[in-house]
Inverse folding.
């Protein structure tokens, strides 16, 4: 746990996901396959064309291998997108890439259900190692 720099301490939010860091801790039950679901309705970013905010229900579901994501670092990481201009598809795929770099999960699914624009809702789903998808993949609505 010595590698956790945010947990139990006051920290300022990061201005970009380039500056933020997902921290991890050892999976305490590596012999048991299980699923972790992280869900927020408070995710936001900026449209890179208009500069308008995009809001999103973001669900991250994964089956840990050797490491688990520490949730305070996840909160700070997600908040770093608040003023970050990027397309919705780019954001979801970046989150997958950053999770893989941080913890290399056995399986990972990230779903972003972005707020409606012009009467159209955009949902982006990206997976890492879909062949390892466990039979139970969380409780969030599809």
């Amino acid at each position: 746990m010595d590698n956790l720099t945010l947990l139990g301490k006051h920290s300022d939010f990061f201005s970009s996901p380039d500056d933020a860091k997902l921290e991890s801790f050892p999976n305490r039950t590596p012999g048991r396959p299980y699923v972790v679901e992280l869900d927020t309705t408070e995710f936001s970013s900026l449209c890179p064309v208009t500069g308008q905010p995009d809001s999103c229900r973001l669900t991250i579901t994964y089956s840990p291998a050797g490491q688990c994501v520490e949730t305070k670092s996840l909160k700070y990481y997600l908040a770093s997108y608040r003023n970050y201009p990027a397309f919705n598809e780019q954001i979801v795929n970046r989150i997958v890439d950053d999770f893989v770099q941080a913890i290399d999960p056995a399986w990972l699914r990230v779903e972003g259900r972005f707020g409606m624009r012009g009467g159209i809702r955009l949902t982006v789903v990206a997976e890492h190692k879909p062949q390892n998808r466990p039979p139970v993949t969380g409780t969030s609505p599809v």
User: Anything to note?
Assistant: Residues 107 and 132 are 6 Å apart (CA to CA). The mean pLDDT is 89. The chain has two helices and six strands. The longest helix spans residues 88-103.
